[in-house]
Amino acid sequence: MSRRSIRLALAAAICAFAMAPAGADVRIILRDGRVINVPIAPEEVQSIEMRQGRTGAAPGLPPAPSGTNLPPAPGYLPGSKITPENTAPVEPPRSGATFNAPAPVAAEPTTAGKIQVGPTRQIKLPSQAAGLAKPGDIIEIDAGTYRGDVASWRADGITIRGVGGRARLVADGNNAEGKAIWVIKGHDTTVENIEFTGAEVPDHNGAGIRGEGVNLKIINCFFHDNEEGILAGDNPTSVIDIENSEFARNGGNEGRSHEIYINHIKELIVRGSYFHQGHIGHLIKSRAATSLIMGNRITDENGDSSYQIDTSNGGRVFVIGNLLEQDEQSQNSNIVANAMEGATNESQEFWVVNNTFVNDLGHGTFVVSRAPGRAHVINNLFIGGGVAFHGTGDLQNNVMAAGPGGAPNLEKALFDSGDIKEEGTKTASDPGLVDVKNYDWHPKPDSPVIGAGVDPGSADGMSLLPTVEYVHPAHGKPVRIKAPIDVGAYQHGG
């Protein structure tokens, strides 16, 4: 559609337009059914050009109030789209003025554009780009520190990435919508190479990112020293995918804030990422229907976090090929916990395969589950004192090695209805890893874990073999398994 047509349509809806929030798209519905989205903020409009070449206010309408503090239209809620149901009718033109609606034309195809942000660019701040972004846009933010700049992103299908290094967003006491540094409302959003730090809000759930749209992908980002790293609300169709990212020193709020807190969504995927030094809360907390946590390092490292992984309502849970450590300052003696707040997700499966656990607390439980049905605990290396598993489940071909509190041991189930079936488990006085204290948990050539595993098979058509190995810092690499499979997160011959 031409700029002239947009201006004419804008004149017809100037009352509604004047009431729109700064930076919002204005949705104009014409009598012939066509819909026009006008991505222009009210304060940007100086005049309206008419067909006769005159300029001035729209015919028959008073000029818009000056300034940005415009009163809301009757029935208008901030952030809502403007439709005929919540705007006042447009007064017809006065006599002597001409206002001819343009002839119907096909909508012009939209193409994704690029928005560049940085101190030397025309657009200086990410928040300015958020107001301009259209569906499919790529927003490139130059490396550097952006202090106190917060934003809500509404466009669908956008990619926001740091270029030339990470773009660093420091909250400095500011927040978007009382929620986060960034509130992402659009669907199918990718965030790449961005750092988020210092998020604090009155309810103590200040997040680096608050995810409110459908489908969010996080790649190579760093979240640290926030009340929440990522907080995502309920959305039964959404998939959140976190890859090669780092989370440090997030949490607090008396244990109600976490490094990531993912509510009831369709699927959470976490791969090749590094979670450490959480504060009071969990390192990973998920209520997703499916949680796939593969090839990560999830370690306390002198932090005082609670669980390393908490899949609060169970679901289809796959914990495969991770490095997990509980520190002596831990707030809770469980490392991986499943369905501790009720197995309320529709499907319940729990697979814990080829992980390496280190319990520096010296007591407690490595894996605990309250879900119905049997947990499957296969090919894991447990190092340190404590109980390998509580609940109902099958333990196959795990290796339990001595550590700070003595060797782990199997005890009867924590829950009265539960039982444990254990086979092929080995004990060892030394796990045979390169350097446990300094987190190099690769097996040495004489380690008892080599060749001690069993093929874990598949579940729901997905192979349970580890396919991602963690590489420090915050990276995952593909791995090919060579038989016989080793126990633990690293394959000696992989």
Describe the structure in your own words:
The termini are far apart. The strands form 7 sheets. The chain has a 23-stranded parallel β-sheet that branches. The radius of gyration is 28 Å and the shape is elongated. With 494 residues, the protein is mostly beta strands. The protein is built from 3 helices and 43 strands. The chain has 2 domains: 3-86, no CATH class; 114-478, Pectate Lyase C-like (3 Solenoid), CATH 2.160.20. The model is unreliable at 3-24 and 47-110 (pLDDT under 50).
Note the topology.
Layout: H1 3-12, H2 14-18, E1 26-29, E2 35-38, E3 48-49, E4 55-56, E5 114-117, H3 126-132, E6 138-147, E7 151-153, E8 159-170, E9 180-184, E10 189-192, E11 194-197, E12 207-211, E13 216-219, E14 222-224, E15 228-232, E16 235-243, E17 246-248, E18 260-262, E19 265-271, E20 274-276, E21 284-286, E22 290-294, E23 297-299, E24 309-311, E25 316-320, E26 323-326, E27 334-338, E28 349-353, E29 356-359, E30 365-369, E31 375-378, E32 381-384, E33 387-390, E34 393-396, E35 399-401, E36 420-423, E37 426-428, E38 433-435, E39 440-443, E40 458-459, E41 462-463, E42 468-471, E43 475-478
Parallel strand pairs: 5-6, 6-8, 7-9, 8-10, 8-11, 9-12, 10-13, 11-14, 12-15, 13-16, 14-17, 15-18, 16-19, 17-20, 18-21, 19-22, 20-23, 21-24, 22-25, 23-26, 24-27, 25-28, 26-29, 27-30, 28-31, 29-32, 30-33, 31-34, 32-35, 34-36, 35-37
Antiparallel strand pairs: 1-2, 3-4, 38-39, 40-41, 42-43
